[in-house]
UniProtKB/TrEMBL annotation:
This is Fatty-acid peroxygenase. Signal peptide: none annotated. Residues 338-359 are annotated as: Disordered. InterPro entries: Cyt_P450 (IPR001128), Cyt_P450_E_grp-I (IPR002401), Cyt_P450_sf (IPR036396), Cytochrome_P450_fam2 (IPR050182). One of its GO terms (biological process) is xenobiotic metabolic process. Keywords: Iron, Metal-binding. One of its GO terms (molecular function) is oxidoreductase activity, acting on paired donors, with incorporation or reduction of molecular oxygen, reduced flavin or flavoprotein as one donor, and incorporation of one atom of oxygen. SUPFAM superfamilies: Cytochrome P450. Belongs to the cytochrome P450 family. GO terms for cellular component: cytoplasm. It comes from Asanoa hainanensis.
Length: 359
């Protein structure tokens, strides 16, 4: 049922429950579906819920200066690439994935070989499938990139260390030491590098959704085109709120814990509903209307309270804010296409990939 209902599965189950908590089973294990601001705080508390692959990366990678540099590299790649699109129809999802992959590789210090963009898109596309072609492509893509990055880490370790203040993300991760003081394995370092690159490249979905929003609500184009940082961030937050990202995220109870009066046994699956709360009329006025003004002014909602965090929150919002402005400034027409966004598959996208024809 979860696989066929897509984004509506957990929100519908939660709406039918008395307190918004769903008790069910996932892959034979007891599972609890939760949602809302209190649920998000509970879920992201490592004392309550363990999340596979959620080991913290070195904090030095995501300082404000580092994120600014990442945005700068990606912006430079966009500015160099976008003129080549003139006169032909291009998928903004695919093209922005390539732009993001190039910018991320420059920022991380990775070799710009191998299809990092295509492989990361395949990994995200197959992330919600238990089996089938998308899942198989995702596994093959992950293995391919992990092998490549393992070799890259080995090459870095054979060289001379860079000065701490100038070290790239590749250098920091390749020389990262575990709690026992030993270097993490090359394979572990490769996984960590991929965990930095993949979420940044996945912003391509949000770029496509930003263009979709501008097409459907063109009254926001001039304000976004102006480059006002506050409006750009509000626009980015509203894209993340309205448009479907992951339907939910999963973790395991870190012990015998309790939420909203429900006893959750150690190891039980905990599902945090992402899609439902972002469209809850009890929280949002006209929830299916695109309105960046929700996040502006003295009465603005705090996105941290109502929009669940992304895999790398500061970088995700910064990248989307910048690239959305660049989309608004791009002179293009939208050719006839299928702009429907199906909710029976996750992750979803405009069926056409959001085609534009720059002039």
């Amino acid at each position: 049922m979860m696989l066929t209902k897509g984004y509506s599965w957990l929100p519908e189950r939660r709406r039918r429950s008395a307190d918004g908590v769903v008790e069910t089973r996932v892959l034979g294990r007891p599972a609890f579906g939760i949602g809302g601001a209190a649920a998000a705080r509970f879920f992201y508390d490592e004392r309550q819920v363990r999340r596979p692959g959620a080991a913290p990366l070195p904090r030095v990678l995501f300082t404000a200066d580092r994120v600014h540099d990442l945005v700068g590299e990606t912006a430079a790649t966009w500015d160099a690439t976008a003129p080549r699109w003139a006169g032909r129809s291009v998928s903004l999802l695919d093209e922005s994935a390539a732009v993001l992959a190039d910018g991320v590789a420059r920022w991380m210090g990775l070799p710009r070989d191998g299809d990092l963009a295509g492989d990361c898109v395949a990994m995200v596309e197959g992330s919600a499938d238990a089996a089938g072609p998308r899942r198989w492509r995702a596994r093959a893509a992950r293995r391919r990139q992990e092998r490549r990055l393992t070799d890259v880490v080995a090459t870095v370790r054979d060289g001379r260390p860079q000065a701490p203040g100038s070290a790239t993300a590749l250098e920091v991760v390749a020389r990262h030491r575990a709690g026992d003081g030993h270097l993490v394995s090359r394979e572990t370092a490769a996984v960590e590098l991929l965990d930095i690159a993949r979420p940044a490249i996945a912003v391509c979905w949000l770029v496509a959704f930003a263009a979709h929003a501008l097409h459907r609500w063109p009254e926001h184009r001039d304000a976004l085109r102006s480059g006002d940082p506050g409006f750009a961030r509000a626009f980015a937050h509203e894209v993340r709120r309205l448009y479907p990202g992951a339907p939910f995220v999963a973790g395991r109870a870190a012990g015998a814990v309790e939420f909203a009066g429900h006893a959750i046994p150690d190891g039980a699956v905990v599902l945090l509903d992402l899609h439902g709360p972002n469209h809850d009329p009890a929280v949002w006025k006209n929830p299916y209307r695109f309105d960046p003004g929700r996040f502006l002014g003295p009465d603005a909602l705090d996105p941290a309270d109502v929009v669940p965090p992304a895999a790398d929150e500061p970088a995700t919002v910064a990248l989307l804010s910048d690239l959305a402005v660049r989309v608004a400034r791009l002179d293009y027409e939208v050719p006839p296409q299928d702009l429907d966004i199906p909710l029976d598959r996750a992750p979803t996208r405009p069926r056409s990939g959001m085609l534009v024809r720059p002039r």
